[in-house]
């Protein structure tokens, strides 16, 4: 070994101990030695319902998949062997009595990885991992010399015993390995003999389906009847096979205070008083904090500013991607880095990709979660947590309330309450974002090229509104949310859900009444068909002095039905050129502005040139500021944003 290599190895070891780890060892990378045994274990069904082990099989069998070019492994151990002085904690495994060790170890491992990169110099790369990553950390730690794998399948250290949690740093640096530890279990079978459920199929082979740790933590169903008597007082985990191990009797006590219990554990009778939703909220928090790729589906939400801020805080605390929908009002800032693409009325490609990649999905009253998950073509691989009251109004015989979704955890509660509970459980930030002070994003200069389209209508309107607060009270199907970012719960109030055909003007008036005196400019953008079927609602706004701006995206057609007719024609092999029949609204063109004036409102248009939009919008907004109702007729080219058109034309087979 060169002096440089020796210095690097000792520097890495010293830094790991400085960071608070109790033991460190360096070893080679490469496929784990017990990879074949791991595959036999999976194939035998011993993993039970832990499907994530099967999903990550290939990665666990080759660290190169996690870090290409990986050459070395730095394995660390953190002891949680605190004295068993408080009998109230007896029902909980030792590792779970203090702070979540993932939260403790991750930042330390990342700091150690950064140190290795800096000490070894470019182009060295590193990746930190705890047991939530797809690595066989015990196998890698044993090969590095941290200890040996005992007959109870735990890693045993001569100094620390088995009361340890493990982490590794994979690195492309070539680090001189430490000497391996021999297997010191000998003829001892204390752990195998003491197991209350007989979970060991043999030395070094655990049938998780019979293990109390699996049954009280990982297993999602009921405990098998034949094993119920063996559970005894265990609530979370089981330490029996470790308690009888001779190596743990002489193990050094833990030094890390964060892993020690705080206060007394509540009596089992008190746990029985925890209602179902509180228990499930705690479970949801645990699943989310352990997730590597969490996804939050922010659906129906209150317009409370603090609740908005808590949703943002939760996403940032979990580093979770967030999806929203134009089917409901604004629930999360759409230009936030964690937001998945622009929100849409239909499930976008970006949303479906995020659903496929997620390992935990938290649905906050997402509209038609069942339909969204069906678009994946099969049950999701992720754990699904559904927070909603929808199932209470579900009408199964007629499917009036859409499909009941697949969900692993159901929480029948208000989403704001659940978000607060999860934030509290994971130790969320004390200071929340001030959504009320968020200024509207600067509007780009409107485009002036091509035929007048919905994009021109939207961008010119946003530019005309400027930085003043506005509320979008209604939007057409052709809307692309990327044109108008949402940063406040009142920036967008929601859609009609498809059941409000012709209801756009009426909803615009009702929303404007609710917003009166709020300082927000109420803006409704409706299609021409929608407007024509509900135009008399404008009289109500004029009569009761309710200022509102209505912009009609006039494509002279019930265009959504043209798209539908084209889809049907393709499915039935009929001529698609006939799709317009019965759907076009032209020859003659209805006088949209004239119909508005007939109700006593100010009518503007028709606007047929892009260059005229700023002037007309300015006049219409001035009229609304003066207390009037203004309707602007904008003639646009028929068509939808590509993502909308693709979603509307897709069949179930396309989405699978």
Topology:
Layout: H1 3-18, E1 23-28, H2 35-43, H3 51-55, H4 57-60, E2 72-79, H5 101-120, E3 126-129, H6 137-144, E4 148-149, E5 155-156, E6 164-171, H7 190-194, E7 200-202, E8 205-206, H8 212-218, H9 225-231, H10 240-243, H11 246-249, H12 268-272, H13 276-290, E9 294-298, H14 305-318, E10 321-324, H15 349-357, E11 360-364, H16 369-374, E12 383-387, E13 409-411, H17 415-426, H18 454-465, E14 470-474, H19 504-515, E15 521-527, H20 528-534, H21 537-543, E16 548-554, H22 559-571, H23 592-598, E17 602-607, H24 613-625, E18 629-635, H25 642-649, H26 652-655
Parallel strand pairs: 9-10, 9-11, 11-12, 12-13, 14-15, 15-16, 16-18, 17-18
Antiparallel strand pairs: 1-2, 2-6, 3-6, 4-5, 7-8
Helix pairs in contact: 1-5, 13-17, 14-17, 18-24, 19-21
Please characterize this protein's 3D structure.
The chain is α/β, with parallel strands linked by helices and 656 residues long. The protein folds into three domains: 3-184 and 239-259, no CATH class; 276-435, TPP-binding domain (Rossmann fold, 3-Layer(aba) Sandwich); 454-655, Thiamin diphosphate (ThDP)-binding fold, Pyr/PP domains (Rossmann fold). The protein contains 26 helices and 18 strands. The strands form five sheets. Strands 10-9-11-12-13 form a five-stranded parallel β-sheet, with helices on both faces. The chain has a five-stranded parallel β-sheet with strand order 14-15-16-18-17, sandwiched between helices. Helix 13 packs across helix 17.
């Amino acid at each position: 070994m060169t002096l440089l290599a020796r210095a690097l190895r000792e520097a890495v070891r010293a830094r790991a101990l400085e960071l608070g780890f109790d033991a460190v060892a360096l070893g080679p990378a490469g496929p784990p030695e017990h990879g074949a045994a791991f595959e036999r274990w999976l194939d035998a069904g011993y993993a039970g319902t832990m499907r994530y082990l099967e999903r990550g099989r290939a990665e666990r069998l080759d660290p190169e998949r996690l870090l290409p070019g990986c050459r070395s492994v730095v394995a660390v151990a953190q002891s949680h062997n605190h004295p068993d002085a408080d009998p109230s904690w007896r029902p909980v495994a030792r590792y779970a009595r203090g702070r979540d060790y993932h939260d403790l170890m991750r930042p330390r491992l990342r700091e150690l990885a950064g140190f290795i990169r800096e000490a070894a110099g470019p182009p060295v790369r590193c990746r930190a991992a705890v047991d939530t990553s797809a690595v066989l950390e015990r196998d890698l730690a044993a090969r590095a010399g941290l200890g040996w794998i005992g007959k109870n399948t735990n890693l045993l250290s001569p100094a620390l015993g088995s009361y340890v949690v493990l982490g590794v740093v994979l690195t492309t640096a070539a680090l001189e390995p430490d000497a391996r530890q021999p297997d010191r279990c000998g003829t001892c079978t204390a752990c195998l003999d003491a197991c209350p459920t007989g979970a060991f199929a043999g030395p070094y082979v655990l049938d998780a389906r019979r293990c109390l740790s699996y049954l009280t933590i990982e297993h999602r169903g009921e405990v098998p009847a034949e094993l119920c008597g063996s559970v005894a007082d265990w609530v979370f985990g089981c330490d029996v096979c470790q308690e009888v191990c001779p190596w743990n009797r002489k193990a050094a006590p833990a030094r890390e205070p964060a892993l020690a219990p705080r206060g007394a554990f509540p009596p089992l009778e008190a746990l029985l008083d925890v209602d179902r939703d509180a228990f499930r909220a705690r479970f949801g928090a645990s699943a989310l904090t352990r997730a590597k790729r969490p996804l939050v589906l922010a659906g129906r939400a209150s317009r409370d500013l603090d609740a908005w801020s808590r949703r943002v805080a939760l996403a940032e605390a979990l580093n979770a991607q967030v999806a929203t929908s134009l089917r409901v009002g604004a629930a999360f800032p759409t230009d936030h880095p964690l937001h998945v693409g622009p929100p849409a009325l239909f499930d976008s490609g970006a949303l479906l990709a995020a659903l496929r990649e997620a390992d935990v999905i938290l649905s906050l009253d997402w509209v038609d979660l069942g339909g969204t998950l069906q678009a994946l073509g099969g049950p999701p691989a992720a754990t699904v947590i559904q927070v909603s009251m929808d199932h209470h109004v579900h009408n199964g015989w007629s499917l009036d309330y859409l499909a009941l979704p697949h969900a692993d955890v159901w929480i029948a509660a208000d989403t704001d309450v659940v978000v607060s509970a999860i934030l509290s459980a994971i130790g969320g930030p004390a200071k929340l974002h001030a959504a009320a002070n968020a200024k509207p994003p600067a509007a780009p200069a409107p485009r002036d090229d091509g035929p007048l389209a919905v994009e021109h209508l939207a961008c010119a309107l946003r530019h005309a509104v400027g930085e003043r607060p506005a509320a979008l009270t209604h939007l057409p199907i052709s809307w692309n949310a990327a044109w108008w970012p949402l940063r406040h719960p009142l920036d967008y109030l929601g859609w009609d859900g498809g059941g409000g055909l012709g209801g756009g003007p009426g909803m615009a008036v009702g929303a404007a009444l609710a917003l009166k005196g709020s300082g927000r400019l109420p803006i409704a953008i409706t299609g021409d068909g929608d407007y024509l079927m509900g135009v008399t609602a404008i009289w109500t706004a004029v009569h009761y002095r309710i200022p509102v701006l209505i912009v009609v995206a006039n494509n002279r057609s019930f265009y959504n039905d043209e798209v539908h007719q084209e889809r049907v024609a393709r499915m039935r092999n009929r001529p698609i050129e006939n799709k317009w029949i019965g759907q076009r609204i032209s020859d003659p063109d209805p006088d949209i502005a004239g119909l508005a004036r007939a109700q006593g409102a100010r009518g503007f248009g028709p606007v047929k040139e892009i260059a005229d939009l700023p002037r007309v919008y300015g006049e219409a907004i001035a009229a609304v500021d003066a207390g009037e109702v203004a309707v602007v007729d904008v003639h646009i080219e028929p068509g939808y944003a590509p993502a909308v058109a693709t979603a509307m034309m897709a069949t179930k087979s396309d989405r699978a």
